[in-house]
Fold:
Amino acid sequence: MDSINKACSDIKTYLEKYDNPNDSLFTTLSILRVTPHFDPNKSGYELLQSNGVEVISNDSLRNSISLLYERNYPYYKRYEEERLRFHALHSEPIFLSYLYMHFEPTLKYYGKFEITNEDYKKLKHDTSFFKLLAAIAFENSAVQDRGKKTEAKMRSLLTFLENEIALKEP
Structure:
């Protein structure tokens, strides 16, 4: 997700600095369309039971597991869905008005977005595109922040589980 924020900054700088587009810009523009996604199992404690975990007698541990699967994951997913909706409503229409999207399987993000010289000149003076770059970085950063918080909760739960297992071992 850092690459999306970097692309927003790099494109803004490129548009301010250069009079003509080049391959580097085409590749960087394609990063704006990247939509990382997260799809966890949503069954929590029931998933553990179905995989042979008989009883978790520690109420705090059982509640932590359930909270992660029933609250934290769905909350993170909501951020992601809002980002995808923003992208569909705001980014895609602008991209389609300026860019020719080409699939390139050899590139990291599988895309190369070309722009004509005429459209590039329009884009350089389109203040709404600069606002869009800032909004893409904002939406991306919000999802990234929520992801880091969710990761911290997962790591905390893993530590809790490891400690609980260590107490049970002879």
